[in-house]
């Protein structure tokens, strides 16, 4: 008896044993093949949609046995026969290739070897399909309209694999810090105001592909809020003044201007315009009758509001520009700046001594504070801010001084200007003396 090993076509590295007839009278035996074995271990594969996946299943000594590929209980291939009619699935040797991966391709794939044993030999590959995040909002159009003072919930739902992480932001603005609760997919805003209105962005990220973003537009309805940019406007006869009101409302408000109770409109003297939430009325060439009280009134379907603006010819509140310390132990020179469209007729200076502590064996000092008012033919200005200064002088009782007809030029030229004038006179005197001295020295040296 002898054995012939033959290669079977289509089964590389696999051999079948045949026995030829022996001489008459002899018995026949066969050469038994080694048991087939799967040498690949099961794995977990994570792939994105559209990619190509190769599931390995290397077999040693397959012989005439049948190799099956299954997904769950559904047979995909049996030996060299493709059972599932899907061109995306094909065999690469004993490995299974899946092209153009789809979301439905996720699951468990079994490489199974049918043998004579009671239980088949098999490995299991788990396939997870990585899906980039997508977001849907509630409501689907991303538009929410509420009234001021209500509580509103902004919701978005994210899908993808792995499960995306959600975060919130607000376009062109910071997220409101108070009265806000976030539970991932839901953002709760309590007692909303106009500051809550805007575009909120729901962001989803899971590390696969591009992050997803959806916008939710929150519109807050409220009655007008009106504020005068300058409640008091200083003006002068023949000059132009600008009255400005800042109006916030949703829906947009109609804005009207009044002088006392009289409705005003644009004419050759008055000009009204709007830029965003800034409403302006220009009064050209101011006259005496134009001084007084104005108001801007704003109204929408939810209510109305107004702000008052006073146009006056009084001087602006004086502003101190003096040094803090004094160069004299018993006196202090105050200076200030006052804006006025007419000549200042009178100043009212208010000052008092503040409590002080004198250190022993040092030069006594005291701390003072002062306030100032200015008066012209239209009346008194407001009282200035308090100004504090120090002297090295002795204590003095509080004094109220009224300076009439100050020797100052119009438009608030005050004692600071007089100081400059005195300095210039001293400078001219010094230069004159210097010229005389140089002339005398010249005569002595060069007779």
TrEMBL record:
Q: Does the keyword Glycoprotein apply?
A: yes
Keyword terms of this UniProt record: Cell membrane, Disulfide bond, Glycoprotein, Immunoglobulin domain, Membrane, Repeat, Signal, Transmembrane, Transmembrane helix
Q: Where is it predominantly found?
A: membrane
Molecular function GO labels: axon guidance receptor activity
Disordered, as annotated region: 160-180
SUPFAM superfamilies under this entry?
Fibronectin type III, Immunoglobulin
Domain Ig-like: where?
36-121, 133-219, 224-312
Q: Which segments of the protein form a coiled coil according to its record? A: none
Q: Which domain of life is it from?
A: Eukaryota
Q: Which InterPro entries match?
A: Cell_Adh-Cytoskel_Orgn, FN3_dom, FN3_sf, Ig-like_dom, Ig-like_dom_sf, Ig-like_fold, Ig_I-set, Ig_sub
Protein name, per record: Ig-like domain-containing protein
Q: Which organism is it from?
A: Tigriopus californicus (Marine copepod)
């Amino acid at each position: 008896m002898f054995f012939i090993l033959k290669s079977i076509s289509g089964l590389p590295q696999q051999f079948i044993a045949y026995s030829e007839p022996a001489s008459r009278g002899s018995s026949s035996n066969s050469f038994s093949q080694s048991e087939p074995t799967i040498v690949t271990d099961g794995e977990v594969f994570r792939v994105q949609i559209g990619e190509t996946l190769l599931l390995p299943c290397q077999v040693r000594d397959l012989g005439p046995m049948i190799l099956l590929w299954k997904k769950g209980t559904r047979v995909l291939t049996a030996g060299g026969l493709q059972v599932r009619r899907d061109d995306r699935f094909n065999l690469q040797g004993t490995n299974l290739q899946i092209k153009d991966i789809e979301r439905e391709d996720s699951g468990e794939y079994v490489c199974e070897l049918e043998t004579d044993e009671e239980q088949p030999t098999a490995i299991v590959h788990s396939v997870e399909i990585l899906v980039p995040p997508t977001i849907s909002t509630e409501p689907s159009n991303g538009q929410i309209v509420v009234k001021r003072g209500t509580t509103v919930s902004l919701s978005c739902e994210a899908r993808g694999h792995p499960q995306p992480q959600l975060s919130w932001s607000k376009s062109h603005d910071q997220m409101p810090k108070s009265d806000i609760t976030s539970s991932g997919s839901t953002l709760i805003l309590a007692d909303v105001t106009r500051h809550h209105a805007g575009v909120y962005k729901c962001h989803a990220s899971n590390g696969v592909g591009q992050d997803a973003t959806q916008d939710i537009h929150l519109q807050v309805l409220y009655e007008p809020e009106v504020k005068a940019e300058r409640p008091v406007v200083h003006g002068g006869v023949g000059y132009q003044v600008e009255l400005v009101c800042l109006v916030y409302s949703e829906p947009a408000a109609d804005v009207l201007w009044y002088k006392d109770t009289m409705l005003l409109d644009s004419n050759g003297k008055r000009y009204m315009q709007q830029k965003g939430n800034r409403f302006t009325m220009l009064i050209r060439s101011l006259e005496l009758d134009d001084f007084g009280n104005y108001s801007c009134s704003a109204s929408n379907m939810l209510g109305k509001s107004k702000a008052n603006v006073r146009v006056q010819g009084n001087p602006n509140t004086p502003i101190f520009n003096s040094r803090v310390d004094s160069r004299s132990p018993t006196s202090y020179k105050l200076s200030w700046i006052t804006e006025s469209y007419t000549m200042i007729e009178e100043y009212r200076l208010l000052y008092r001594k503040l409590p002080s502590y004198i250190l022993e064996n040092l030069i006594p000092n005291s701390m003072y504070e002062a306030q100032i008012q200015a008066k012209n033919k239209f009346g008194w200005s407001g009282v200035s801010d308090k100004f504090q200064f120090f002297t090295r002088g002795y204590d003095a009782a509080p004094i109220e001084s009224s300076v009439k007809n100050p020797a100052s030029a119009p438009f608030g030229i005050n004692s600071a200007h007089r100081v400059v004038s005195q300095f210039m006179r001293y400078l001219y005197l010094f230069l004159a003396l210097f010229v005389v001295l140089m002339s005398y020295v010249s005569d002595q040296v060069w007779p």
